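re: the backbone from monday

yeah here it is again, tokenized this time
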């Protein structure tokens, strides 16, 4: 087996490449320690102790780096040990620089992250550049901040997001998610829209806990917020471009240019092109799969005639084609969650058609009026899915037991389906008025309107008996969803140290669902369903400044998710899940430490969901059924740490613990066909059901951890030139794929690492680098298909590449 196909399945990575990385970074740490003068030793020692303590909290990562790492030379109590030399010849190094202030817009105002009473993380700058260079989609953000997980059974086109273990595994076109994705202040409600590529971004904010009293759509679990770089009226043309290429010819080209047209008008044009060759060989058809072509663009036009008014127009589009998600039959060892011996990610054996196409577009307009005492904003957004079609081999193999040859392993019956969006429109409008800051009392209020209309289609095929690919079943549905809300919030400085905030929101939400076509599909029940709800939500929080650099905060917030409707199948009728409500409690502290050379944020939380909407995915009939659980809970803690350990050594660490549990002793679901179920079973009306009471929520790993380490070495060629080494690691513990628990459909813990070695010059204007993602080539199942056999989907394999970037 070639090196590129060798897969590590047991224990933590211990490959030669990882040992090399550990040695290089350990040497960098050792060298960095000699840069510290006695003046800064106490400070550096404290930073090191905190970093070591936090690293210990991310035990899997910490253990990996601790093994076999060279140890730095011991230091004396008052000075760093160093070779004997003439003191007059010793240069005095500078102290570690201060961290750049971090501002977020979580409260619709630009605020220092320390002053915001919400658990929030930020991804920006070099970290975004590192992640984007590999050509991956939004799923690359999974575990890159505490409590965030992202997965998909539809590949690049249909990501499902989870915050603090709270999300939705539903794969149908109309699925609602408790985590909102907001791109340039516009909610991307349909899951197909959530996969819009990341490029030319100022930042990605992850807001944990219910949101909605400040802006936009109600979000019971949290928000992932993308903000693109905006046009500026600077007196020069500026921008950047980045080119990279790697394994499987994974190419990524992106860039942006900002052009001031005159004193009041500026345009910013940005674009992205991605490509990957098909690299997975199908032993049955002889073809190859798993490639893609992705194109996306955005044009923004800023008009700012004065400080009193501005208008920002945004037009964007996406065009993606390639392979649908690959389902791999019987890749899981029975009775375990390990991959079968000899599993090769570059091979598959399927006999069905595979194809995916997606085209989306949208526009939004931001209008802002500034007055002496307040500001008024209008945000209008329109999004549409112009085309979406995905078709794949759901059974993950070829043939069937009644039509040999078949395999791999047991294939009871063939299943091939396609899903598509035939028509879609989303319109949003928000008006908001807010006070100007600077007074003890600050307030904002607004109204919000949302309309979404979508027509979807699901088609069944039988390539085994009909290779021409004619339809065997066909269903078309339409859903119309309208909602409006009024919201308001206020904050008040009770003292110079204590600030309190509160907000309230009223929402009306209604949706109508109709079956338009049921060809060769017997209807069980009605062909339509309606649901509506009126709900009031609120939040209250407080921030107390212990010192100018340390804030305590606490927050209680409520949220809700409107009723959801799932389309029928030949086995189940239309199902409706009633509205769910959540109450969230959290408290913590946010701090700038060591003269702003380190930043430590910590939070503890608990949330209670009543009537939680759950999706029974799969089972022996491959159903997609919505149910409500009486209650579910989640509780845990989160840590975010950043530090400039020395002038040239930067370190970040994030970790979270999420403990979730379904609480409903009367809730039973259909289990898998062939897996090893560990839940209590009952037989009802001749059908085997299992209890899910006490189970964790699906796709909710208890532990999520991440770290980055960057060491820069200034070169004598030019004081602005730098050689650097950057590494990032993320860890997710085991998680259930479904509502029930089984030995097979549960992911193994996964530790993925990246390495980047590069050189930048001319004050960072140019950069060239080599990089690797998943450098240990650790392959794990990330989700599964349970109705037929032990079918699984896997994470991205190792990729090695080169990148060049220029800013101008």
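seq for it, each position gets an aa:
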């Amino acid at each position: 087996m070639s090196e590129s196909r060798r897969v590590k399945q047991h224990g933590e990575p211990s490959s030669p490449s990882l040992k090399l990385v550990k040695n290089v970074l350990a040497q960098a740490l050792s060298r960095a320690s000699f840069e510290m003068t006695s003046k800064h030793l106490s400070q550096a020692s404290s930073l090191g102790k905190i970093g070591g303590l936090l690293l210990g909290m991310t035990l899997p990562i910490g253990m990996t780096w601790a093994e076999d790492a060279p140890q730095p030379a011991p230091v004396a109590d008052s000075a760093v040990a160093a070779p004997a030399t003439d003191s007059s010849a010793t240069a005095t190094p500078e102290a570690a620089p201060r961290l750049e202030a971090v501002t977020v817009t979580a409260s619709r105002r630009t605020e220092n992250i320390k002053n915001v009473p919400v658990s929030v993380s930020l991804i920006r700058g070099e970290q975004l550049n590192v992640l984007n260079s590999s050509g991956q989609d939004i799923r690359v953000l999974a575990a890159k901040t505490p409590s965030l997980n992202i997965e998909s059974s539809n590949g690049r086109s249909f990501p499902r997001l989870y915050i603090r273990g709270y999300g939705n595994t539903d794969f149908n076109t109309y699925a609602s998610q408790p985590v909102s994705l907001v791109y340039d202040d516009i909610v991307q409600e349909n899951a197909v829209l959530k996969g819009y590529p990341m490029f030319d971004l100022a930042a990605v904010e992850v807001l944990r806990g219910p949101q909605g009293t400040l802006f936009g759509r109600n979000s019971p679990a949290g928000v992932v917020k993308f903000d693109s770089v905006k046009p500026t009226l600077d007196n020069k043309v500026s921008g950047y471009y980045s080119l990279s290429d790697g394994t499987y010819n994974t190419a990524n080209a992106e860039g942006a240019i900002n052009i001031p047209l005159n004193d009041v008008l500026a345009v910013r044009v940005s674009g992205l092109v991605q490509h990957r060759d098909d690299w997975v060989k199908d032993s049955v058809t002889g073809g190859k799969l798993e490639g893609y072509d992705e194109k996306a663009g955005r044009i923004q036009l800023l008009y700012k005639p004065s400080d009193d008014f501005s208008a920002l127009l945004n037009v964007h589009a996406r065009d993606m084609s390639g392979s649908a998600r690959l389902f791999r039959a019987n890749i899981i060892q029975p009775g375990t969650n390990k991959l079968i011996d000899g599993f090769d990610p570059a091979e598959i054996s399927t006999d069905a058609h595979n194809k995916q196409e997606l085209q989306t577009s949208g526009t939004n307009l931001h209008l802002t009026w500034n007055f002496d005492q307040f500001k008024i904003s209008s945000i209008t957004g329109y999004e549409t899915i112009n085309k979406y079609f995905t078709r794949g081999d759901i059974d993950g193999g070829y043939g069937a037991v009644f039509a040999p040859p078949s395999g791999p392993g047991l294939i009871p019956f063939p299943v091939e389906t396609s899903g598509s969006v035939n028509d879609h429109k989303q319109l949003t409008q928000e008006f908001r008025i807010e006070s100007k800051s600077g007074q003890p009392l600050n307030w904002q209020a607004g109204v919000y309107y949302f309309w979404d209309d979508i027509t979807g289609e699901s088609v069944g095929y039988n390539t085994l008996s009909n290779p021409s690919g004619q339809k065997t079943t066909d269903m078309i549905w339409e859903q119309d969803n309208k909602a409006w809300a009024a919201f308001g919030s206020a904050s008040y400085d009770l003292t110079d140290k204590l600030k309190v905030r509160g907000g309230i929101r009223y929402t009306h939400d209604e949706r109508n669902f109709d079956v338009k076509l049921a060809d060769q599909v017997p209807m069980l029940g009605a062909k339509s369903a309606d649901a509506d709800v009126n709900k009031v939500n609120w939040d209250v929080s407080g921030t107390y400044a212990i010192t100018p650099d340390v804030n305590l905060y606490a927050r209680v917030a409520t949220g809700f998710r409107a009723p959801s409707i799932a389309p029928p199948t030949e086995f189940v009728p239309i199902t409706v899940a009633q509205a769910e409500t959540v109450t969230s409690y959290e408290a913590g502290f946010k701090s700038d430490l060591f003269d702003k050379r380190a930043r430590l944020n910590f939070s503890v939380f608990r949330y209670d969901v009543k009537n939680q909407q759950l999706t029974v995915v799969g089972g022996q009939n491959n159903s997609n059924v919505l149910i409500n659980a009486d209650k579910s809970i989640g509780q845990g803690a989160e840590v975010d740490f950043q530090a400039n350990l020395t002038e040239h050594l930067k370190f970040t660490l994030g970790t979270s613990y999420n403990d979730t549990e379904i609480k409903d002793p009367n809730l039973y679901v259909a289990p898998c066909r062939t897996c090893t179920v560990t839940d209590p079973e009952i037989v009802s009306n001749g059908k085997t059901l299992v209890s899910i009471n006490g189970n964790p929520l699906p796709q909710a790993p208890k532990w999520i951890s991440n770290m980055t380490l960057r060491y820069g070495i200034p070169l004598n060629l030019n004081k602005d030139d730098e050689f650097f080494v950057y590494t990032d690691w993320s860890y997710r513990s085991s998680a259930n794929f479904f509502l029930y628990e089984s030995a097979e459909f549960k992911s193994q813990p996964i530790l993925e690492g990246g390495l980047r070695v590069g050189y930048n010059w001319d004050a960072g204007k140019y950069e060239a680098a080599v990089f690797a993602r998943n450098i240990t080539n650790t392959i794990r199942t990330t989700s599964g298909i349970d109705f037929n056999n032990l079918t699984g989907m896997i994470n991205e394999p190792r990729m090695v590449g080169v990148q060049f970037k220029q800013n101008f």
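Residues 1-53, 57-93 have pLDDT under 50 and may be disordered. The helical segments are 16-34, 38-57, 59-66, 125-132.
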